[in-house]
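Quiz preparation item.
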């Protein structure tokens, strides 16, 4: 069975072989008689850098609808200038996302994103296909990290980085939804802030006058007038 979807083609194939051990693929007679036999694939012709055309084939989809959705996302990604390959791994996507973010983010923000992606997210999810990453994978990761003593604030920031990356994938029509939303871990409460006593403020100013007299004058004004950063 062959169905056209825009530029692409949807078809069913299997792994059966003939007597010479050649794979039958889409020619298997069981595909005609048994609607549950085999899996669904798509094929689409794409341009190459040398202005020729190559055929991209992706398979093992459980249904015709799943293959059609994957093909549509692939074509939308190609039109938008980003990869929508259903075989793309989480690691490949996150590395591409980091490269794009490096053009627009501050170096300090990029350094934090890079640390979380390379030290945490890729080791945890990198081998999964992006389309396979699910909320259950993220929930299991959080459970293991908390059991190992990972701080909630650090873990929350790590997951926020993942959610930001996957949110971009949704906006690009690369994914139908963000598997990191709703968040698995709530934002930890900020530590309660305590106002210095007069004695503590005096000790701080005395130290400041010894260490940095110019800044000490500014600190004294701030403490004396109650001015705060807006």
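Solution:
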């Amino acid at each position: 069975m062959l169905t056209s979807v825009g530029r692409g083609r949807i078809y069913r194939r299997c792994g059966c072989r003939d007597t010479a051990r050649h794979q039958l693929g889409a020619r298997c007679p069981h595909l005609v008689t048994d609607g549950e036999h085999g899996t669904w694939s798509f094929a689409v012709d794409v341009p190459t850098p040398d202005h020729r055309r190559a055929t991209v084939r992706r398979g093992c989809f459980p249904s015709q609808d799943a293959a059609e959705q994957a093909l549509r996302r692939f074509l939308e990604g190609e039109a938008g200038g980003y990869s929508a390959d259903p075989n793309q791994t989480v690691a490949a996507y996150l590395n591409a996302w980091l490269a794009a973010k490096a053009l627009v983010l501050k170096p300090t923000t990029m350094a934090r994103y890079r640390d979380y992606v390379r030290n945490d997210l890729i080791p945890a999810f990198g081998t999964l296909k992006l389309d396979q990453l699910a909320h259950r994978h993220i929930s299991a990761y959080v459970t293991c990290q908390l059991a190992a003593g990972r701080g909630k604030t650090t873990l929350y920031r790590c997951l926020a980085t993942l959610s930001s990356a996957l949110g971009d994938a949704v906006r690009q029509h690369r994914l139908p939804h963000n598997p990191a939303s709703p968040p698995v871990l709530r934002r930890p409460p900020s530590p309660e802030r305590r106002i210095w006593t007069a004695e503590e403020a005096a000790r701080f100013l005395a130290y400041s006058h010894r260490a940095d007299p110019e800044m000490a004058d500014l600190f004294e004004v701030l403490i004396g007038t109650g001015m705060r950063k807006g």
